[in-house]
Specification:
The complex is a heterodimer of chains A (342) and B (102). Chain A is mostly helical and 342 residues long. Chain A folds into two domains: 233 residues, no CATH class; 64 residues, no CATH class. Chain A has 15 helices and no strands. In chain A, α2 packs parallel to α5, α3 packs antiparallel against α4 and α4 crosses α9. Chain B has five helices and no strands. The longest helix of chain B is centred in the first third of the chain and has 25 residues. Classes of the chains: A mainly alpha (342), B mainly alpha (102).
Chain lengths: 342, 102
């Protein structure tokens, strides 16, 4: 059941981007695969196959619906939307805030990546007995292998395949009711709830989907199927960096890291620009930290207004607690910049 | 986010950073000063020599609002500059807290 494919990267070198891209590619390959099966079945005009094929077509449609649900609930759909917004930003004539769009994409990537990793963790104990070591690698292997009979399968065989893979029936029920699994789902939900508080705009809807999916036992499809998708990614990337567990770690390792990169890129561009002025801008070097604080502090009101406007466009946000700080107080202090200039 | 500081009490508490009120005010002062200083430095580095001179004049003569509007007209990417530096300062603070605990 293990196959090498062009999508198989070297696990040792697998980055977050690789994990996401591989998962997205698996999703598309699998979708194409099911579409091709459907197309073949629908082309089959043999009268003796019609009843047989009808069952298969129904099963494939069911599987496609399940795939779509899984994709949405692990954050894939939100990621696609965020990526689309990002890639088409320049065509929107400023209808979207670039910073918000970029942060939405980063958040969506983190959610999808984290979900893949977490899902793998959830899938391991559940699948241990049925599938001890050989995690499928090929796109179609993410889903149960269709038992082929002259190029087609019966509805009963398809159902059995789903059961054998732990996607239907008793084994699936055991999976989703296992204490370890419930604990994992609870932990995962709490983590997303925490991250959501930082990026509520971006993933609010996704968290609601998680709550709906994992808050009860009535929507077990994604909960029991997503681990398989995650297991593939985990198998392929045993050494990949794990998503930080806490919000603080998330900010430190992700947001701050990204912010540093943006700042470095921005400054590199501006450095090229300012080099044209050579050493003429001596005044800049004479300004002190106190001057910089005054300049930086002066933008506080405008920044907050812009932030509030952006939030207001998305959802109602109430102001939080005010604490006067040195930055705001020092804005009233006189400066000596003019004296330096003289 | 509150209206008088870049980093608020709620921002820190949302990160599970628990401090008593006195320490919290002090930490917020330090962090917001750092943000303002980094933002100011980057804003100034974005200006031409002539504009830097103009800004120096405004620091003495203009109101804060006038200065802000002028800066915004000269440095349109100021929201990114601010947001990035907020994230950097918070990230550095979390890292320093982790180092202290080790």
């Amino acid at each position: 059941m293990t196959h090498e494919t062009p999508l198989q990267p070297n696990p040792e070198n697998m980055s977050v981007d690789d994990v996401i891209n591989t998962t997205v590619n698996l999703r598309y390959e699998r979708s194409d695969y099911l579409d091709k099966l459907l197309e073949d079945l629908q082309k089959d005009s043999d009268p003796d196959h019609q009843a047989h094929n009808a069952g298969q077509i129904k099963a494939i449609h069911l599987q496609k619906e399940m795939d779509d649900q899984i994709w949405e609930q692990i954050g894939g759909k939100a990621y696609e939307t965020a990526l689309y917004n990002f890639e088409t930003l320049n065509q929107r004539e400023n209808t979207l805030d670039p910073t918000q769009v970029e942060m939405a994409l980063v958040s969506a990537e983190n959610v999808l990546y984290s979900n893949i990793v977490k899902s793998a963790a959830a899938g391991k104990p559940a699948k241990a007995a049925a599938e001890p070591a050989d995690v499928p690698h090929q796109a179609e292997s993410v889903a149960p292998q269709m038992p082929a009979q002259n190029g087609s399968v019966s509805g009963a065989e398809w159902t059995k395949a789903l059961e054998d893979e732990g996607l239907l029936g008793t084994s699936a029920k055991e999976t989703r009711t296992a204490p370890e699994y419930k604990a994992h789902v609870r932990d995962m939900y709490q983590e997303y709830e925490a991250v959501r508080s930082q990026d509520a705009d971006d993933i609010n809807e996704l968290v609601a989907l998680f709550a709906e999916a994992f808050g009860d036992n009535e929507t077990p499809v994604a909960a029991r199927t997503a681990p398989r998708l995650g297991a593939v990614a985990m198998k392929r990337s045993s050494s990949m960096k794990k998503m930080p567990a806490s919000v603080a770690a998330y900010v430190k390792d992700s947001r701050a890291e990204i912010a540093r990169q943006f700042k470095a890129d921005r400054q590199a561009v501006k450095q090229k620009y300012s080099e044209r002025f050579g050493d003429k801008n001596k005044l800049r070097k004479q300004l002190t930290r106190k001057d910089f604080i005054k300049v930086g502090g002066s933008l506080l009101g405008s920044f907050k207004q812009g932030f509030s406007d952006t939030l207001a466009r998305h959802q109602g946000v109430s102001p939080l607690t005010d604490i006067p700080t040195a930055a705001s107080k020092k804005r009233k202090q006189p400066t000596s910049a003019k004296a330096k200039k003289a | 986010m509150d209206s008088q500081s870049y980093i608020s009490k709620d921002d820190l508490q949302g990160l599970n950073i628990q401090l008593d009120d006195t320490a919290l005010v002090q930490v917020l002062e330090e962090l917001n000063d750092k943000v303002a200083a980094l933002v100011g430095e980057e804003i100034v580095s974005s200006l031409t020599p002539n504009d830097t001179e103009k800004l120096a004049d405004m620091m003495d003569d203009a109101t804060e609002e006038e200065m802000a509007q002028w800066i915004i007209s000269k440095v349109p990417d100021y929201p990114e500059i601010i947001q990035n530096n907020i994230d950097i300062v918070i990230g550095d603070y979390i890292e320093s807290q982790e180092s202290d605990q080790k």
